[in-house]
Amino acid sequence: MSYYISPRFLDKVAVHITKNFLDLPGLRVPLILGIHGRKGEGKSFQCELVFERMGVEVTHISGGELESPDAGDPARLIRLRYRETAELIKVRGKMCVLMINDLDAGAGRFDEGTQYTVNTQLVNATLMNIADNPTDVQLPGSYDATPLHRVPIIVTGNDFSTLYAPLIRDGRMEKFYWEPDRDDKIGIVGGIFSEDGLSQREIEQLVDTFLNQSIDFFSALRSRIYDEQIRDFIYDVGVERVSMRVVNSLEGPPQFRKPNFNLSHLIEMGNFMVREQQRVLTSQLVTEYNRGLYSRNLSQPTATPTQANQPVNNGGNGYQKSQPSNTHLTLETQAQIRELLAQGYKIGIEHVDERRFRTGSWQSCAVGQINGESDAISTLESCLAEYSGEYVRLVGVDPKNKRRVMETIIQRPNS
After folding, report:
1. What ranges make up the beta strands (E) of 1-81?
2. pLDDT of residue 81
3. How far is it, in rounded angstroms, from Cα 87 to Cα 101?
4. What is the pLDDT at residue 94?
5. Which branch of life, at top level (predicted)?
6. What confidence tens digit (pLDDT) does each residue in 315-327 have?
């Protein structure tokens, strides 16, 4: 496939990598490039395309490797991979980078329920130390005075506000928020369907039909089109014999004809996928299952409003949390409000009746100036009481970028 590389993405990654390999006197270059944005927008895949185009070799670390039952293992792993990558630069004489995927998933702190371990602290401290001293990275128990080659680090994630704040400061990490615009999406989706005979106009119409969907939606849509043929194949062979036909067969792998990729069929299948997404968002069975747990938690004595607004130090690791106030809101909703306000986002509240819920015709509740957690909770309680027979959702808005960062339903009719 002729995959598309966004010019903005290519420019940002290429400049960061090249700048770290140049000797620029009197200039302090951030070692880490942090690429963050919504899930499924192709951050890691765009990086791989840029690396391939530039001829850059990559050493990978997954966010899942940043925890271990043995304290210090993840930090040692980062140092080891960094030194290995520096050696590759020296031996092969070409650009190499260290890439950490989903850093926030492995080293971030999402709420007060996320455990902050020794390894999490060490991972943050290790990356900070490497960013400050990129040519002097030692392994525990040994010391090598020979300077290493500088290795640019690229990290990806969804929400870097969950990371330790000193790690993501500008001197150590350069941030790049990746949000593909319409032209980027048309280019990327055109690459996904490049072998399927869709015209440029059909690609544009497909993207405009599902403009709010992420890039991985279109990749999954193309994969879903093959389901019809695979289903026919399974029932032709027989469900009982499909394993031997596919895995241990002398007949060779099965062959499939090219599926129907006309635009109307793609839109029909895409709408089916969107409805499946909505079922996930609207079911929220975990809320029903945990209702008893919330009731037990809320029946326990809680702090007074004055105490609830006072920060509590939880061990000196840079994070603070407040005790829940005495309200009928769930603990989860209170935590979401605190998190939104802590990140500087504005609080919005919307409601809709059951009939208009099917069309997504939400209406805003009258929300005045919210100056803190107690104001947000009291305003939200008033809206819940006023629209007790309707759906109510909490909205987080980024005032700088004029975009929504969160939408979550907190009340349903008859719930």
Report:
1. 32-36, 57-62
2. 95
3. 21
4. 93
5. Bacteria
6. 444 444 434 333 3
Q: Provide the residue ranges of all domains of the chain, joining segments of one domain with +.
A: 7-177, 182-281, 331-411
Calpha distance 324→340 (Å, rounded): 15
Tokens standing for 336? 């979401």
Are 273 and 280 within 8 A, CB to CB?
no
Rounded Cα distance between 390 and 411, Å, is 7
Angle at 132 between CA 136 and CA 22, to 5 degrees: 80
| Interval 102-111: pLDDT, tens | 998 888 877 6
Q: How far apart are CA 373 and CA 391, in angstroms?
A: 22
The Cβ of residue 231 has, within 10 Å, a number of other Cβ atoms equal to 10
**Is 0.70 surpassed by the pTM of this model?**
no
> What is the dotted CATH code of the domain comprising 7-177?
3.40.50.300
Contacts of 53 (CB under 8 A, 6+ apart): 5, 10
- 312-313 vs 96-101, strand pairing mode: unpaired
Using 70 as the pLDDT threshold, list the residues of the chain that sit under it.
1, 111-116, 284-328, 414-415
- pLDDT in the model for residue 115: 61
Q: Residue 218 belongs to what H/E stretch? A: helix 215-225
Look-up of token digits 């069975």: 285
For the chain, how big is the Rg over CA atoms in Å? 25
The whole-angstrom separation of Cα 413 and Cα 356 is 13
What's the pLDDT at 388? 84
* CATH fold group of domain 331-411: Ribulose 1,5 Bisphosphate Carboxylase/Oxygenase (3.30.190)
Residue 384, pLDDT score: 86
